Amino acid sequence: MWSAFTMLLKKKLLNAVAGLAVALALPATAYAQAAPAQPAAAAATKDADPALWVVKDADTTIYLFGTVHVLKPGLSWFDEAVKAAFDKSDTVALEMVMPDPATMQGVIMKAAMAPQTDPALTTKLPEASRPAYAAALTSVGMPASALDRFEPWFAAMTLAMAPLPKLGYDPNSGAEMTITAAAKAANKQLIGLETFEQQIGFFDTMPEDLQVKYLASTVKEFNNVGPLLDKMVAQWSAGDPDALGKTMNEEMRKTPEVGKILLSDRNARWADWISARMAKPGTVFIAVGAGHLAGNDSVQAYLAKHNLKAERIQY
């Protein structure tokens, strides 16, 4: 489920990708269809209890919180043990801290455009995928050839994001948005485990054949994005990281070279960072995509190799 991994990436990165696609590829009338929907009437609040872990020694405490990067309004999750852990923390670490919009668009523009000598993107897709690809673009108000001069990863991410507003997922309701705003309001140190350039690079440096597989899979799953994301959010809300990890990561793990780039290697680097940070006193609240905190190659599994145990906090 490639689109499931797309949801692991930071929502604002995805919005930047989709926003640039709109700016470069769509006429003004189409932008009105693709732009985020206006806020709906306030939804009834529903309790959510996503999973939370802690790693600690005598003078250092590090909380691990798994997020889903796009959410519908009305979920009450930033409370109870999650909020208590956040409040105790001096530092908040996200996958990345977003740069300004101009910087983001510059990075994406440089990475996303295919060389002028490349054939049109549509011709790179398997023939069987082309009608569904054109239909998906048309359904979000884009001409079938709108993304022909872009690289496959960019088209895939654009298609993954485009239907979300119509499905009720508010761009302002993602977990990172809430955590970032709270960290700034409390004057906490806010740091990124990665940079915007790195996260774009995970896709841009992927061999083209894998990018095409990513796009073809996104097209295949296009009409299932809503049910898939609803399932992920329900599992996240219920505090079931094993089920959520399976939903997010199962298909990607079938392509080991992709799983290595997008999951295993990153989890290992983050575990290294946590191990090094344990040598310094203080309390840190780490929030990363929930799929990174599940499975045999999770952050917790790599922490065990550093003789560090992440304990689940029950609440």
Automatic annotation (TrEMBL):
Q: Which UniProt keywords apply?
A: Signal
- Its domain of life reads Bacteria
Q: What's the short name of a Pfam family annotated to this entry?
A: TraB_PrgY_gumN
InterPro entries, sorted: TraB/PrgY/GumN_fam, YbaP-like
Q: Which residues form the signal peptide?
A: 1-34
Recorded hits in CDD domains, A to Z, give: Tiki
Could you identify this protein by its name?
A: TraB/GumN family protein
**To which species is this protein native?**
Sphingomonas kyeonggiensis
